[in-house]
Automatic annotation (TrEMBL):
InterPro entries linked: MT_TRM10-typ, MT_TRM10-typ_sf, tRNA_m1G_MeTrfase_euk
Taxonomic lineage of the native organism: Eukaryota, Fungi, Fungi incertae sedis, Mucoromycota, Glomeromycotina
Keywords from the UniProt entry: Methyltransferase, S-adenosyl-L-methionine, Transferase
Domain SAM-dependent MTase TRM10-type: 57-219
Source organism: Gigaspora margarita
Listed Basic and acidic residues bias regions: 20-36
GO process annotations (BP): tRNA N1-guanine methylation
Name listed for the protein in its UniProt record: tRNA (guanine(9)-N1)-methyltransferase
CDD domains membership: SPOUT_Trm10-like
Gene3D superfamilies xrefs: 3.40.1280.30
Length: 219
């Protein structure tokens, strides 16, 4: 019994020593791998230079032109949405941001009336927004930030159709996902606030079988 016990602990000790040795050689192994990677990279570079393999395809970065155009996403509808819709709005905002970062013609982006559940979603689930550049998160309404005469609320319910964007104007997009539950919501809000409204020329450009109401990031 004693013999068996001592042989078992001998095995365990052997295992422990082996593990220790492995741990101690970690730095050496890391350096060896680094050297190996470096050699591989150099060999690949040489092969490209000799025309043996094609060069790696680089994703072209767009030559971005930042226009003076200001686009507001109005987030004042927080309490009118279900939790799922709040999640959808938040991911549409993320898409707006990344599309604007990679487009050739960027706009100045503002998320106004930011707060409540959308802010909570950003703080807890998205988080990467703390590193976002070129977008203003504002807890205030667009009315407090911009001149009323410059504002144009984009809504599918407007009678005026715009064909061109005016760089002196501030275009507002309603930050809401409602599956058309709230008809005329943004139109009525803009009228109440005495703000101009306009719809995009969807009928001229896209064939849509249902209503011509787009998602935030598509606008
Ligand atoms: N029931 C909402 C619809 C939300 S769609 C409403 O009352 O508008 C999200 C936003 O996209 C809208 O608030 C609007 O600003 C914009 N939008 C969608 N389709 C549009 C269109 N055809 N023309 C202009 N703006 C549009």
């Amino acid at each position: 019994m004693n013999l068996q016990q001592s042989s078992l602990s001998k095995n365990a000790l052997k295992k422990l020593l082996k593990q220790q040795k492995w741990e101690e050689s970690r730095q050496e192994r890391k350096a060896a791998q680094k050297e190996k990677d470096k050699k591989k990279k150099l060999e690949k570079k040489k092969a490209v230079e000799l025309g043996l393999i094609p060069p790696p395809i680089k994703k072209p970065k767009p030559n971005q032109i930042t226009s003076n155009l200001r686009v507001v996403i109005d987030l004042s509808f927080d309490s009118m949405m279900t939790d799922t819709e709040i999640t959808s709005v938040s991911s549409q905002l993320t898409r707006c941001y990344s599309a604007n970062r990679s487009t050739s013609h960027a706009v100045n982006l503002f998320f106004t009336s930011y707060g409540q559940r959308i802010q909570n979603r950003f703080d807890t689930k998205i988080q990467s927004h703390i590193n976002w550049k070129d977008v203003v998160f504002d807890t205030k309404s667009y009315l407090e930030r911009f001149d009323k005469d410059d504002l144009v609320y984009l809504t599918a319910d407007a009678t005026d159709v715009i064909d061109e964007l005016d760089e002196n104007k501030v275009y507002i997009i309603g930050g809401i996902v409602d599956k058309n539950r709230h008809k005329n919501l943004c139109y009525d809000k803009a009228k109440k606030e005495n703000i101009a409204t306009a719809q995009l020329p969807i009928e001229k450009c896209i064939k849509m079988t249902t209503r011509k109401v787009l998602a935030i990031n598509h606008v």
